[in-house]
TrEMBL record, chain B:
It comes from Anser cygnoides (Swan goose). It comes from the Eukaryota. One of its GO terms (cellular component) is protein phosphatase type 2A complex. This is Serine/threonine-protein phosphatase 2A 55 kDa regulatory subunit B. The keyword Cytoplasm does not apply. SUPFAM superfamilies: WD40 repeat-like. Keywords: Repeat, WD repeat. Belongs to the phosphatase 2A regulatory subunit B family. GO terms for molecular function: protein phosphatase regulator activity.
Length: 325, 422
């Protein structure tokens, strides 16, 4: 609460905004009267805006490092994919091919006003924006602010190459994956086509040992994932109906083949940047209503750009958590 | 106390009654004093007329959700007989209340005593006719209808139709049409819930029936758009007849663009020709015949635009301000922070900022205009932006339908101001 003479200064950077927003969403779960859909929707917009700036800043950092170490950089804590050993060599040529928008070079872009820089970055119209972007059933009329982020290779999607450095290439992958963070238990689940399965990426990219319905998946070595049936509930409640159970499959898009280890979201360390980075990758699955749904469907070669689309897709996973009542 | 925070204010059609609802689920109705020769100055004063508990906290066991008893909206029905009727709603349930006066009491019953005890029939030797005797005025409120179980999401608006038979209720994703006599069913007339909730991009924030055309209503969205719907065109009004949206100014884009463009209130003018919308920083007047931009825009507190970060941190950016017209549609009013409220004269384009506080509101005192210093040297009597108290917010205001009397709710206090009496 603001008091008295405290000066109101707008000095939040994207990272703080993300953590503040996540805290708001988390605390809204315990507020009287249930989850306020309107407020959480607005918070998710801020979260998405902040994340896009955050990711573009990370990309800029990565690019600078790659420029500095053309033969393989010591890797940053990448927001999504831990780098496979082979990928780093493949990454620089990809990155070098990209013309870097001038905005991302500005490391001072740390204040609120910098979001304009980030926004302009993403507003660059991209050649490959598919016309299917218009087809989305949602009434989203978002301008290029969002569409550019979803397009494939090209100057408008440098954040995509954020993941190019870290992602495995060319692996066929299961589609229709959605990753969901349960805000109650702080546990991450991946849902695919209505099935639960383990962390695909930590094993064979072709993965899929789907367990139908809500059964708990067998724990995979090295993964910390649990699912509590009943915690996640799709908001399919019509008037008077009891809360719908089951988890619907997410929108179809091909996620990154290599994912960061999913750590449990810790509300006690909101300033921990690696936690926030991981959280961003967790939320890489789509709040596809905010971005055109078609970004996931557009045909792209399986490479890092897929990760980009997913990462830049907004925060659909916990919309479900938000509306889980 | 938090339960005393006023959450809605509404004059009735004649302006003689003023209803307030609070967070504790109570409704307090004020009545205007009639002219009285012995107390000429008391004309125009509003005194408490009736108080009752409209809603209680409830618990939805199925969803493990507590349902707040806070009164979100009150709407009066046009008066048809001696009693008064109003609709009050919390997040889930709408109730129709009848407020009636009792100033006579029957005395001389045969079967019971004056204190109500039954008389022994064998003791009754003669019959008498009960007579009506005057008594102290008693105002009773009784719930006549309860409209429940029709909303999955939180109800934000109710609006009585000009046909005086139906009304609508709106939550985040749906709008339902009710008949005032029928409580066990309602018709869903707008449903914007997407098949996949992950595709949700906007919610309904307010809805209102047109004041004269009983088939027309509007609803506003969190994206800053307004849709006008005609119930004659189809049963489900998912497709609008008119779509009002002002293109966003790309140069003012920020992290919080979506939040500040969300419309918190929409009100038709009394004439029915215009409507007014309130978003976080401005009030806009729209001509129903022009969809692509408002005809008038008034900045309420533009100096907050550079403070949006802090207002986001302390949640003030989510405050939902209401707005209202005066009886002749020549002026509009809305609230702000620091217990300030703003009035805009549409004809002269003049605006004024006033404060609702005890210090500045001695009875009969004239309100002094206030000014917020937006930069540079602060003049005497000006208030700097940094010393505004953001806990003192005026979200709810109401204007008498015919006279220049306004009701302003400042947290848990109600202020009633009127034009100088000559």
């Amino acid at each position: 609460m603001l008091r008295g003479r405290r000066r109101m200064e707008c000095t939040l950077d994207a990272q703080s905004l993300i953590s503040i927003s996540l805290r708001k969403i988390h605390s809204s779960r315990t507020q009287r009267g249930g989850i306020k859909l309107h407020k959480n929707l607005l918070v998710s917009y801020v979260l998405r805006n902040a994340r896009q700036l955050y990711l573009s800043e990370r990309y800029a950092e990565l690019y600078r490092r790659q420029q500095h170490y053309p033969d393989g950089a010591p890797l940053l804590a990448m927001p999504a994919c831990p780098p496979p050993p082979a990928a780093s060599a493949a990454a620089p040529p990809e990155l070098a091919a990209l013309p870097l928008p001038p905005d991302t070079q500005d490391r001072e872009a740390r204040s609120c006003s910098a979001v304009r820089g980030g926004a302009e970055l993403l507003e660059v119209p991209v050649c490959a924006a598919p016309p299917e972007l218009q087809r989305a059933p949602c009434r989203d009329s978002s301008p290029a602010f969002y569409r550019a982020s979803s397009a494939g290779p090209g100057p408008g999607s440098p954040p995509g190459l954020l993941y190019a450095a870290g992602c495995d290439f060319g692996a066929p992958h299961c589609s229709s994956r959605t990753t969901v963070l349960d805000l109650d238990t702080h546990v991450v689940t991946t849902v695919e086509n209505g099935y639960l399965h383990q962390d695909c990426c930590s094993q064979c990219p072709c993965c899929c040992q789907p367990a139908p319905g809500l059964a708990s998946p067998p724990p995979a070595p090295g993964t910390k994932r649990k699912y509590y049936p009943g915690q996640e509930e799709e908001e399919g409640v019509e008037e008077g109906e009891p809360g719908g159970g089951g988890v619907a499959g997410g929108p179809p898009f091909a996620p990154c083949t290599k994912r960061a280890r999913f750590e449990e979201y810790s509300a006690e360390h909101p300033q921990d940047s690696s936690n926030i980075s991981n959280l961003i990758s967790i939320f890489g699955s789509g709040f596809t209503g905010l971005v055109s749904r078609q970004q996931a469907d557009s045909e792209q070669p399986l490479n890092g750009q897929l990760c980009s689309k997913q990462a830049l897709a907004s925060l659909g996973a916990w919309t479900r958590a938000i509306v889980a009542f | 106390a938090e339960a005393d925070i006023i959450s809605t204010v509404e004059f009735n059609y004649s302006g003689d009654l003023l209803a307030t609802g609070d967070k504790g689920g109570r409704v307090v109705i004020f009545q205007r004093e009639q002219e009285n020769k012995s107390r000429p100055l008391s004309r125009g004063e509003y005194n408490v007329y009736s108080t009752f508990q409209s809603h209680e906290p409830e618990f939805d066991y199925l969803k493990s959700l507590e349902i707040e008893e806070k009164i979100n909206k009150i709407r009066w029905l046009p008066q048809q007989n001696a009693a008064h009727f109003l609709l009050s709603t919390n997040d889930k349930t709408i109730k129709l209340w009848k407020i009636s006066e009792r100033d006579k009491r029957a005395e001389g019953y045969n079967l019971k005593d004056e204190d109500g005890r039954l008389r022994d029939p064998f003791r009754i030797t003669a019959l008498r006719v009960p007579i009506l005797k005057p008594m102290d005025l008693m105002v009773e409120a009784s719930p006549r209808r309860i409209f429940a179980n029709a909303h999955t999401y939180h109800i934000n608006s109710i609006s009585v139709n000009s046909d005086h038979e139906t009304y609508l209720s709106a939550d985040d994703l749906r709008i339902n049409l009710w008949h005032l006599e029928i409580t066990d069913r309602s018709f869903n007339i707008v449903d914007i819930k997407p098949a996949n909730m992950e595709e949700l991009t906007e919610v309904i924030t307010a809805a209102e029936f047109h004041p004269h055309h009983c088939n027309v209503f509007v609803y506003s969205s969190s994206k800053g758009t307004i849709r006008l719907c005609d119930m004659r065109s189809s049963a489900l009004c998912d497709r609008h007849s008119k779509f009002f949206e002002e293109p966003e100014d790309p140069s003012s884009r920020s992290f919080f663009s979506e939040i500040i463009s969300s419309i918190s209130d929409v009100k038709f003018s009394h004439s029915g020709r215009y409507m007014m919308t309130r978003d976080y920083l401005s009030v806009k007047v729209w001509d129903l015949n022009m969809e692509n931009r408002p005809v008038e825009t008034y900045q309420v507190h533009e100096y907050l635009r550079s403070k949006l970060c802090s207002l986001y941190e302390n949640d003030c950016i989510f405050d939902k301000f209401e707005c209202c017209w005066n009886g002749s549609d020549s002026a509009i009013m809305t609230g702000s922070y620091n217990n300030f409220f703003r009035m805009f004269d549409r004809n002269t384009r003049r605006d004024i900022t006033l404060e609702a506080s005890r210090e500045s509101s001695k009875p009969r005192a004239i309100l002094k205009p206030r000014k917020v210093c937006t930069g540079g040297k602060r003049k005497k009597d000006e208030i700097s932006v940094d010393s505004l108290d953001f806990n003192k917010k005026i979200l709810h205001t109401a204007w008498h339908p015919m006279e220049n009397i306004i009701a302003v709710a400042a947290t848990n206090n109600l202020y009633i101001f009127q034009d100088k009496i000559n």
